[in-house]
Amino acid sequence: MTTTESKDLGAEELRARAAEALTRARVRSVALTDAVDDEDLVRQHSKLMSPLVWDLAHIGSQEELWLVRDVGGREPLRPDIDDIYDAFQHSRADRPALPLLGPAEARSYVREVREKAFDVLERVPLEGRRLTEQAFAFGMVTQHEQQHDETMLATHQLRQGDPVLHAPEPPPARSGELPAEVLVPGGAFTMGTSAEPWALDNERPAHEIAVDAFWMDTTPVTSGAYAEFLDHGGYDDERWWSPAGWAYRTQNGITAPRFWKREQDGWWRTRFGVYERITAGEPVVHVSFFEAEAYAAWAGRRLPTEAEWEKAARFDPATGRSRRFPWGDEEPGVEHANLGQRHLRPAPAGAYPAGASPAGVHQLIGDVWEWTSTDLHGYPGFAAFPYQEYSEVFFGPEYKVLRGGSFGTDSAAIRGTFRNWDYPIRRQIFAGFRTARDAGPDEVG
Asked: Are residues 373 and 321 in the same domain?
């Protein structure tokens, strides 16, 4: 919902929108867990990820904590499992050894929690308390579930065996020939938000920030362009890598993006159980920050800062205001972006001309999360809400900010202000990037 719309909505309309968002998330959670048998549900497919059954019960546990107990004031259903499903108590690698709920018990638990959460949604006042104002708590829980759905989708990518997920192909490129880069004008703009009803604490508050003029890639870097970096020996040339990136690459024997393999006839990759030739025209995915940084150096460019990314995505020079999305304030439609696991791969560069920003930058939302050069930090005036562990404990140089969402991100969990973050070594996530460069004095105009 847009900020203006949310102010005009009555309580019943807010309840209906919250119920729809919660239901859409649950349909996806069920589909991701029902796609495999119970043996696959309890198996750890990678030390980097939890068993799928842990994610499912964790979704229910968080919903119980926030909607049933806190917002609803109801008696706990399963206080005995709180510690087991506390993401800060146990690392992903250690979770299989915990006394987890089995598949049947986990499914029963999340159903019972949801029934009680819907009862709370019908009865609780949506005003008078910050946690329930504009149905915020229900939006927070929806976004949490969708984020874990994307995590479970990443687990499916790491899973061995025959394909179990299926989806239609994304649309073809529709924009015609696009310029390689576009100029984003310098100056101040409004970054972040103070009014978006379901925005999370690290997106707040809105504040003015200035950036110098810069050039940004029109589309994310494609697999074909990235293959040129590989074929020119980019992974063997220390010049392009930061000291930390080179150490990581050499110590771990990394020679290509995750899931890529060189065959006699070129580069191939595994995608959700399908072994296929890379698609040259689609954004590269499963690259770490260090790999993205090295490619940018090889190309004579750099990664954009987070502020540059947001200005390219949101600033409208015609009105001087920042939009919710590159295309405007309306919610993402199928014509705007590749979101919601509608397709199981990034769409080709140029597939969503209707989603371009006023600056002419394409596919800033959906397809692949985009690494920026910025460490995660709080904005001026940041205040943790509703709990410190949502984002504040991650502030610092250990984490890099990613923007824009991926093909596995739901529209409820992405907007022009949404901030994601991860370690710079992460490659199992659906991350790609685009590059930027400073604009010279003679280019600003």
From this structure: yes
